[in-house]
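Self-study notes.
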Amino acid sequence: MEKKYWKGVEELRNDAEFVRLKNDEFYEPLPIDELINKKAEDITVTPRRDFLKFLGFSVAAASLAACEAPVRKTIPYVIRPEQITPGIANYYASTYFDGYDYASLVVKTREGRPIKVEGNTLSSISKGRINARVQASVLSLYDNVRLRGPLMSGNAASWADVDKAIGEKLTAIAAKGGKIRILSSTVISPSTLRVIGDFSKKYPTTKHIQYDAISLSAMRQSNLDSFGVNGIPSYMFNKANVIVGIESDFLVNWISPIEYAAQYAETRKLDGGKKAMSRHIQLEAAMSVTGSNADVRIGVKPSQQGSAVVALYNAIASKSGASAISGGIEGELAVKIEKAAEELLANKGKSLVVCGINDIATQNIVNAINVMLDSYGNTIDLTTTCNLRQGNDAELAAFTDEMNKGEVSALLVYNCNPAYTLPDAKAFTDGMKRTELTVSFSDRPDETSLLCQFVCPDHHSLESWNDAEPKKGFYSISQPTISPLFNTRQFQETLLAWAGTPTLFHDYMKAGWSSMLPVGLSWEKFLQDGVLENTGTAAGKFTSSASLTAPAGGEKAGFELVIYEKVGLGNGLQANNPWLQELPDPISKITWDNYLAVSPKRCS
């Protein structure tokens, strides 16, 4: 007998009111009048279910109806802005990059308010595609917890007072040669890097340190060791006949998933006269979206992964005339890896191995595998490097040590929350206590900004000017689609003010681009298209020069814990976004909660 599920006890009892309303979208009437008539301070106690049904986020988004102006009645324009026609949407090219996800966008606005984002089809990187995190980001513009203005010692302050106080402290620190550190997530904006450079000229003891909550520092270091290139290559999944993924969820999370998913889809469709699909083999511990799409998924415990990579290398090396590495793996897993190696070798020059393990020795071996498979120059381009995930674990560790020794005088934290995301957050927060000046540019209270003496909230990306270079020679631009809702100020303008050259970041950025734009391309055309790309660089061949050693560790007995990135939340930057919290996980179908996935056999 088919199971029947009730929406609630009202349906079970078949109440008369339920019968009347059962065809409505919501059984319970929406408390719209009650919400609108409440005072702002009372809205926070509104039941979550009510306000999510009403708006889908916080009722601060009531600013959707008026933005900055405190309009209480509907009135026509006295003088209508030329570019706005009531009821007709406008579209603006822009860019999304939060230090984690990148996409070139087209932002849909209505009456001067952004309401939806879609992909920019002119971008050869994102190819008109975005993911759930980018789609949901428009909601964070109207988040009720965003800071309304700057804070000094936890209290509201004016920008003039904050600038004066911080300027005096920076001048005093620079005069005595104190170290100034800017800690940020990955920055891919050429103009922002120029601003940091100008700030560093004013304060020569400044150093910029980048880190990623989900680090791939080992890959960059391995490429430096192997090829002399401190970068992440451009992977071309659309040119590979055989793909082997090792603990890399490249369809939804790993490095540039929007780009990779589009490439991957090209080889998995039998259209346009194609008669063969690419072959995909995935080695991983927990089931991922990428693993669920693979032709062959091989379960590998975390403690086995290093040995599995060695086994794959040895299987290919034995047929390529290369020396073997001590170690490897035995049993059924070894047989499966041997078959994967045979498929890779049968498609030499059209195969690709990618690995998401943040370990230098492992990445060195993967590089050597791809060299033997002749992947560089065919399915891997290390001349057109990817600028995402620039975090450096060694620099971060040295910086944390500097702070704890009391050697850092000023800390400026931009677009990251190290007090929450660092594995050893306590060492970082202990170091902050020894720092004379601490400033956060977070647009909302978070674990790090709450510990800082000053908070200088940045604009939301939809309120900001910016640019991006996600790949070498590939540019995109961001432009504001709404006036700032609160008394925030763009990070770049704040640094320029403290450097003694206060100016609008738009003017600064436009002046910089005046010498970079190709002949015949105007600034206005760049804004309209949103992208500027140079695809003339040819992928080069590379030979690995790194010494190969087996990764540390080995197979262990007992339970092993696997912690992974959720598809909706990624690195957790938008953890308070209900659209993403209520997005069912593609594998488990669970929303909202954290959970532990354990085999039923283990529970018996």
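Second protein, same conventions, sequence then structure:
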Amino acid sequence: MNAHNKSIEPTRRDLVVGATLVSGALLVGCSPADLLSAGSKVDIGAFGPFIRVAADGAVTVISKHIEFGQGNHAGLSAIVAEELDADWARVTVEQAPANAKLYANLGMGVQGTGGSTAIANSWMQLRTAGAAARAMFVQAAAGKWNVPAPQITVKDGVVSHAASGKSAGFGDLLADAAKVTPPEKPVLKDPKTFTLIGTSRVRRKDSRTKSDGTARFTQDVQEPNLLVAMVAHAPLFGAKVKSFDATAAKKVPGVVEVYQIPTGVAVVANNTWAARQGRDALKVEWDDSKAEKRGSDQIMAEYRAAAAGKGPADLKWESFDTHGDASRADGEFFEATYDFPYLAHATMEPMNAVARVKGNSVTMTFGSQIPTMDQLNAAKIVGTLPGAVKIETLFAGGSFGRRGNFQSDYSAECVQIAKKVGGGRPVKLVWTREDDMQAGYFRPIVHHNVRINLDKDGYPAVWRHRIVTQTVMKGSPMPSKGVDTSAVEGAMGSPYLKATPAVDAQVALPDVGVPVLWWRSVGATHTAFVMEHTIDQLARKTGKDPVEYRRTLYTRAGAKRHLAVMDLALAKAGPAPAGLARGIAVHESFGSVVAEIADVDISGAEPRVRRVVTAVDCGTAIATDQIAAQMEGGVCYGLSAALYGEITLKDGAVQQTNFDGYRVLRMNEAPTVETYIVPSGAAPSGVGEPGTPVIAPAVANALLGAGKPATYRLPFVRSV
């Protein structure tokens, strides 16, 4: 540590805090960040926790957010580089260590990536960090050259004073700048003067390493004495190990040991193949007395009954939108029910992690989506301070929500096994595709029941809405106050409900033994479909053009952003191609509004989407190419689920095991996606997820417009 670095180290207070956490007690006077970072040791450089400048002037941006394909490192580093006026070609990105006090997601309170918040929550934080560092270099130059600071300019990492002709790079001024006290409120640039943000220069920083194979993923980790583990999980959710016979497993060459852990039986071996063969040789008897044994069809039938008012008496209903007098039942009405299946996240890289446990010391290496939760759960297993659990976060091959959950399921498994092994010996836990597909977690199944009374002009006068689904917030250390918004977002706050005089919208969250989790775009995965497909049906029922029908409702609701993205998408889409069906959908999620126009070929046995025109209002566009990439990825991911995605349970057991049974969109099935961005001076909002939920209703509306029946159940391959 140099003289200008600060170090956060464990203190006596940390030990008290840690003991409190492990015991489950509360400690008055501690913030969540204090509690969760207790025991950590992080060196902070002269320019703060987000910026490091090398002796040659190269700049490293420390990212508190994981990069698992979404490209956020490009945008995050661009924010810093813009305010710092660094040389973009000499800016690199490094993953931050796990420390909630320094690197918390400002929208979550813990260190974690999700909810399309990486750029949004870092916007002002990183602008301030970059501007402060720039001010330090300017002040250092002013003192060294004895010139007024306002006369100094910075460009591409070079500090200059035009009047004297003096200039110096960041490296030349580094020692002096490091001695300057950072300003608490540095002057930020006028966005009109941005030269990097919003330009095509902002490209991914990880493309080369991911192309040449030097990027590190968990599966790439190789260390001396590394063991590989696989776990035999119960075939039913909620079942426990009753007994097991490891005799045959231990005879497999390369198998080192077999351990029972809370989630099953782990086979530890010298290599992956031996671990797999050893696990296959295990004989496990399961206690399924408390397991979930209902099939998905039975669960959905119970949801339908509940929404129709025939559910159990103790089922709790919560209102998420109630206004006006919704008791009236006169006039023409529309009624529909919608069913949505369980969905797998189906990441290209299944779950895996590397852990080492020696006494109460834990170090982990893997793609950690929510390091704070992973620290906390690991600390509980070994009895140590959360911040003392060191995590090196690597790239990950996708997540879509799967890698971040309250139980830290797979990484906690790895720590459990590493604790059994002991001695600090590294253990790599590997989940197969079958493990990942069958052991959870899933997007929950959902049922909607909608009944709408129309006024004399054919617009909604009364909107009654019932949603039945499983909460993804069960087990959360941060329980929501009031209604679970993750189950109703997209319907709650919809401009269609705002434009309706009377609304009675409620949600019920029955307890089911299937592990569920947020899935890319969370509640919007189903609410966008229901709201947008319902609106199209209402328009056609009343003989109105679906676009103009929306325009009227958006105007009534004051939804100017919805109008803007719809108009932009329409302008860019042009006339509908001959022989193709066209549908439109517009939806707001994660602070962004997206309109999508889908041109669909319905000449074959299955619908084929040929072209999608996307318009997005996501506030200030930092990395335009990356926004386009996220819209493309979101469309294809959402289309994959809409066309084919479905996890089914039979007597509680998942039926799908791999991509042969859980079909996903192939490259030759992917549409051409065009992305257009609404100019905005607002703060950035999400782009990782908002493109996903809009494509399904756009396709359903195209089919409807072509004379096909309305779609009341996804996926389409079971509906058309």
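Instructor comment on the second fold: Residues 6-208 form a domain with the Aldehyde Oxidoreductase; domain 4 fold (CATH 3.30.365.10).
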